[in-house]
Amino acid sequence: MIHDNVLSSSGDTPVVRLRTLLPGANVHVKLEGANPSGSIKDRTALHMVERAETAGLRPGSTIIESTSGNLGKSLALIGAVKGYPVVLVVDPKTPKSVLNYARAFGARLDVVSEADSNGSYQAARVRRVRTLVEQVPGAVTLDQYNNPDNPRAHTVTTAPEIAKDFDALDALVVAVSTGGHLSGVSSTLREHFPALHVRAVDAAGSSAFGHRFAPYRIRGIGLSWPPGNLRHDLVDSLHRVADIEALSTCRVLAKAEGLLLGESSGAVVFAALTYAMHHPGQSVLAIAPDTGANYLHESYDDDWLRDHGTAPELLWHRRDELLHHARSPAHEPEAVAVAAERSPSDRVKP
Asked: Range of 116's domain?
């Protein structure tokens, strides 16, 4: 297919079935890493920019946004194609490969180096964005956390693709992130599959669903506050995934299935395995937000892990080890309506 520019090649990402990890199971993974900049954020960023253009975004306006990685890559690419200067407010956790990618497309990086009292950089990044928007004439921020065009991007692109690919679907397993693709995809797919069970996946330590914030290492997932785009009413259950569970899943998927996925994708697939093992025979789709290319020299590298406080010897490298832990995860899935209470009686079937 011939495209006018690289942006129009986003979407229509492939779906693959996991054949080796759970033979006989019906678990599929939608590979959003196949988008131009390597993540589902291409859909989000492009739709938000196009809607902003419709609302009056002027050529040459500077786009300033807070990002921990993938959205920044998407905006850098879009800025290069459409001619918008882009300033990305990042932090020390942002993968070096992401920074280099953004620079290659001409984006300017503004690094927030001082964390908040809880150890998170996210709120500090957002405050810095507000300051820069006030200082730079004509600058705008898209506010991925609260912008309704974030979930709308997935009601018009991601969800229809899934509905086209599946005649029946029992469960959707999707990362929380900003709440955008979770809310957008879930709201539309419920129209096609009324009995669909939506399982949200978050980092253990994230406050997106109101839990007490605690530091975590996996990137591309989790927030230190509940995002405005997260609709609890669309979610049936929440699985909070620990660092070791996500990182181990990435390693095993690469060797067992030939899938090189990012850290948040590892979390999502781990949660999908947990769901599938406790609901045999059901059709399960996991949306993998990004590729593992961002992390080849980081979380896929034993020396890097060791230097950043994670002993690679603690990871699970065999299929049987991974499935053992997926059957009995560190954090049992919770019913979202009462997740904040975290009472044992409120837990749902894993």
From this structure: 41-135
